[in-house]
Amino acid sequence: MYQPYFQQPFLYFTHMEVTQKISMIFTILFYIYSHHEPKGIIPILMRGLTTSHPFCNQAGEGRWGTDELAFNEVLAKRSYKQLRATFQAYQTLIGKDIEEAIEAETSGDLQKAYLTLVRCARDQEGYFAERLYKSMKGVGTDEETLIHIFVTRAEVDLQGIKAKFQEKYQKSLSDMVRSDTSGDFRKLLVALLH
């Protein structure tokens, strides 16, 4: 859709118009959304993932600098099931949680993107429940986040997010929405929850 309109491939745009790290994020997301998760039996998940694999010591731990391409390759090319197995193997091989490694080895928008991918792979409904909670806790409400999550997840997994919210926070998502919003906005969000 992008290429016919702009006469250039989307990935060309990302490399030419945005910073290198943001370009990597777009490349990861483009790959994830343009390739379907494999069906049937998942192939051997950990094939080649040893301490010599670029994702392990050579990607970040125990060396100066970080090989972001190794992180990109793993995060972009594996299904969520494969990623969960990879994170477990990383923990076993390196002795450190993948989120800790990402926090230690990266920063800024790239770190946020990597952590989002990891957290979604681990527990997508939990990730969105946490974002909803943070958007309403304390003073003020982050209405943009509420709108974004409700609109994008309403027909996908909003009921699962609602259940996860109750499980994690011992509060009803509907009740929290009612107490933090008002008027037609409240009515719309509550209607989407039921």
Automatic annotation (TrEMBL):
Classification via Gene3D superfamilies: Annexin (1.10.220.10)
SUPFAM superfamilies in the record: Annexin
Keyword Repeat: yes
Signal peptide, first to last residue: none
Keyword Magnesium attributed: no
Listed InterPro entries: Annexin, Annexin_repeat, Annexin_repeat_CS, Annexin_sf
One of the record's GO cellular component terms: cytoplasm
Keyword field: Annexin, Calcium, Calcium/phospholipid-binding, Repeat
Any Pfam family: Annexin
GO MF term (any one): calcium ion binding
SMART domains cross-referenced by the UniProt entry: ANX
Family membership: Belongs to the annexin family.
Domain commentary: A pair of annexin repeats may form one binding site for calcium and phospholipid.
Name of the protein: Annexin
Species this chain originates from: Pipistrellus kuhlii (Kuhl's pipistrelle)
